[in-house]
Amino acid sequence: MRKSEARKLIGEAREAFDAGEWQRSADLHEQVLAHFPDEEPSAVWWYDAALAHKFLRDWEKALDLGREAAARSPRGEGDPAYWNLGIAATILRDWATARDAWSGFGIELPGGEGEIDGRFGAACVRLDTDGQREVVWIERLCPTRGRVVNVPVTGGRRYGEIVVHDGEPKGERVHDGTAFPVFDELTLFEASPLPTLEVTVAAGEAGDLEALLALFTEHGFGAEPASSVRLLCACCSEGTHQQEREVLAGAQAVSLAAPEPQARLLLERWAGERAIGRSWSGLAGVG
């Protein structure tokens, strides 16, 4: 292949990329890279080819091409080639490659080998299941994985599941004056064994409902009052929003994440702590 032909194909690959034709873009990039793997701009070509496969959710190819991109990129300078390689390696559970990728990006990791289980702070993830989208809070375990700490209202999603998210924030949520990024979900990494239940509770005071939420949290379960759920359009969801859990007195639905026998025991305990002002009914599974 002549360099003039390579330049033409790279131009076509970029046009395909801009048009969202990920497979065509990847194929054209790889066609050129087969002949010119180490030209001056080849690091960008490897990166774009790997990125196209990321958008295709072809993680094996994203990993293979991502390795080539990272090998031609500077370490410790926040180069995105390492970030995308870290994502692909994490999804494929290639922990040695993932650890090297995050280090190459410039992130300090907890010591040891194998799966990364650290404390990377709180963030939000926009879950996406069959077109249903919901922003939930997570505890970040590594640069791209987090454990869901809300009880999702989206069918089939669960409190405690671990998701892999993208690296580019799409919106933010502000809590107690601190802004937290909202990332898009890439895939469900680990399912949660906790079923989702729904119950109607009557709380004489807001503090009564707070006590119920705290009780479930203390036992490693989840509880989410309907009053804390806000509906936003897709455009607004990617903006900046205040995110405060609104806990109200009165009767309302509460989503629970717990096995039904334990949920029933905790509800009885909660209601029995005060003779007046606390009651519950209609405990049932959801979805």
Please provide a written account of the structure.
- With 287 residues, this protein is an alpha+beta fold.
- It has three domains: 3-105, Tetratricopeptide repeat domain (Serine Threonine Protein Phosphatase 5, Tetratricopeptide repeat); 122-190, no CATH class; 196-285, Alpha-Beta Plaits (2-Layer Sandwich).
- The protein is 38% helix and 25% strand.
- It has nine helices and eleven strands.
- It has helices at residues 3-18, 22-33, 42-55, 59-71, 80-91, 95-105, 206-218, 234-237, 260-272; strands at residues 122-129, 132-140, 145-148, 162-165, 172-175, 178-190, 196-203, 222-225, 240-242, 250-257, 278-285.
- It has a five-stranded mixed beta barrel.
- It is elongated.
Condensed summary:
It contains nine helices and eleven strands. The protein folds into three domains: 3-105, Tetratricopeptide repeat domain (Serine Threonine Protein Phosphatase 5, Tetratricopeptide repeat); 122-190, no CATH class; 196-285, Alpha-Beta Plaits (2-Layer Sandwich), CATH 3.30.70.
